[in-house]
């Protein structure tokens, strides 16, 4: 599993300046665009946005979490890209995200949630792609069972499904 870790603030600053390294890795989507990221980002592939199809999200490195949710029955397996890794890929520098669903429902997700073992942008549930009716195609899922602090109304409200765009804000 590929994971980016920064050793220091200096390294982080250098990594942000070295955006062409990421830009070379952020191809143009060839499939249906599932997610558009804009705002305080420096790596793009479509004007001022970073657009991702499912294959591009998969290439960022998948993780799988097993957890129960308040919206499903029994333990579920979710596979997706960590939100922190997505923000690294677009060189997101903001303090929060405005995550918006296809029905224009929007939630704010603070930078404190962009941690390695935090939420993922899930594209599979129990090994299957999620339909719009099944809360897909993308759903921000937190590892509720392994982190009791994620079992709160605030976190549940940030667990947006049918996600299709993110704006990184300062």
UniProtKB/TrEMBL annotation:
The entry's keywords: Signal
Cross-referenced InterPro entries: OxRdtase_Mopterin-bd_sf
Residues in the signal sequence: 1-23
Signal keyword on record: yes
Domain of life where this protein originates: Bacteria
Gene3D superfamilies xrefs: Oxidoreductase, molybdopterin-binding domain (3.90.420.10)
Protein name: Oxidoreductase
């Amino acid at each position: 599993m590929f994971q980016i870790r920064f050793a220091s603030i200096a390294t982080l600053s250098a990594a942000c300046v070295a955006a062409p390294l990421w830009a070379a890795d952020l191809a143009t989507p060839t499939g249906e665009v599932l997610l558009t990221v804009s705002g305080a980002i420096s790596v793009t592939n479509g004007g001022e946005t970073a657009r991702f199809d499912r294959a591009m999200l998969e290439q960022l490195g998948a993780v799988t979490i097993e957890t129960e949710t308040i919206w499903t029955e029994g333990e579920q397996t979710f596979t997706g890209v960590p939100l922190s890794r997505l923000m690294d890929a677009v060189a997101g520098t903001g303090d929060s995200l405005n995550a918006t669903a296809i029905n224009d429902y929007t939630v704010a997700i603070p930078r404190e949630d962009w941690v390695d073992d935090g939420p993922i942008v899930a594209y599979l549930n129990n090994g299957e792609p999620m339909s719009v009716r099944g809360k897909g195609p993308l759903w921000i899922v937190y590892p509720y069972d392994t982190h009791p602090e994620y079992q709160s109304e605030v976190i549940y409200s940030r667990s947006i499904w049918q996600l299709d765009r993110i704006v990184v804000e300062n």
